[in-house]
Amino acid sequence: MILQQAKQILKQYWGYPEFRGLQGDIISSVLSGKHTIGLLPTGGGKSICYQVPGLALDGITIVISPLLALMQDQLHGLTKRNIKAYQFTGSYSPRQLDEAFRNIKFGGYKFVFLAPERLSNTLFLEYLQNAEVSLIAIDEAHCISQWGFDFRPSYLNVHLLRERFPNIPVLALTASATDRVKKDLAEQLQIPDATMYEGSVRRDNLQLEKRLTPNKDKQLLRLLGRLTGTGIIYAKTRSSCESISHYINENGLHSTFFHAGLDLKEKNERQERWLDNKVPIMVSTTAFGMGIDKADVMWVIHWDVPDTIEGYYQEVGRGGRGGQLSQAYLLYNQQDFARISKGITDLPKPED
Fold it and tell me: What is the pLDDT of residue 291?
């Protein structure tokens, strides 16, 4: 009965007759009132796992998300389906906060998106406690673990939410987590009894290649000369992103760059142009792309070797989300070997 209701919601708002993979199991668990941890592959439809229960349950779903771009992407996806969602951004005076929560309460909103930093505001938590919260969803939940590749200390604020809502089910979602991170997730979120669903990380439509090259500039242009459609080039530093984008444009191609040093307006403009396929090539640090739901990314290139396998998996997983074949290229040279070797050498020695 629970799953049937969920399927009706899926059909009504998304047009799909059935859930994919473990989506149905995760949603059934949440609607049964259980704390749940879902590990689904990149492009596996994680957002559906909290959005469908959020519509089935009375009250609102709180969604904790690490990036403004990710929140905006999810918000856009809901509003275009005529589902009311609210996003907290910027600073709020007590009066503005009161007005925001009145709008949420009486405006028929079903989802409230916020960054974990906001949970350190006591007044915000007091207002939140008076809201009719039915589900707490933690997106990109690996960010809560200090053993994860993308640890964000602000995610530790989630325990403040758990203390205010001890009886509300929690759904934690991520694409990748080691055994140590999975254990840490349950502990930090204070859900030791959580039901865990873990899908395969394998993506058969991703074609991975590595290219050892003494000249990354020339290799990049060779690749871009034969790649078609929309893609992402990942680089480690802001200056690299800017110089690579300029180099590409000087050679007759059309790209833009994205990193944390840009102001909010510029970030939004660059992201929208790329999402709308007005600019086919995005050159970015890892600040871009987490959770971005763009189905037609045809390729991903790494200019630098990522620091972790988990990070690499997340980033190449931005390709092929529509099910089409997507190519991923890792460019590396002797300098990359030297950098990685030094990182290993500099690790603290284990105690005897």
Answer: 57
CA distance linking residue 63 with residue 47, whole number of Å: 10
Identity of residue 339 = R
Instruction: State the Cα–Cα distance between residues 326 and 180, nearest whole angstrom.
Output: 30
The torsion angles phi and psi of 78, rounded to 5 degrees, stand at -75, -45
The 3-state DSSP class for residue 101 equals helix
CB neighbour list of residue 282: distance below 8 Å, 6 or more residues apart: 231, 232, 233, 255, 256, 257, 258, 270, 274, 288, 289
Q: Give ∠ CA 218-219-221 in degrees, rounded to 5.
A: 65
CA dihedral 17, 20, 22, 27 (to 10 degrees): -40
- The candidate with the shortest Cα–Cα distance to 198, out of 337, 21, 53, is 21
Share of the chain above pLDDT 70, in %: 93
Please determine, for residue 352, whether its predicted confidence score (pLDDT) is greater than 50: no
57 in Cβ contact with 31 (< 8 Å): yes
The rounded radius of gyration (Å) of the Cα atoms in the chain is 21
What is the secondary structure of 320-338 as a DSSP string? Answer: -TTSS-EEEEEEE-HHHHH
* Domains (range + CATH), the chain: 2-198 (3.40.50.300), 206-339 (3.40.50.300)
216-226 vs 238-250: helix axis angle to the nearest 10? 60
End-to-end CA distance of the chain: 57
Q: Which of 199, 228, 205, 174 is nearest to 320 (CA)?
A: 205
pTM: 0.78
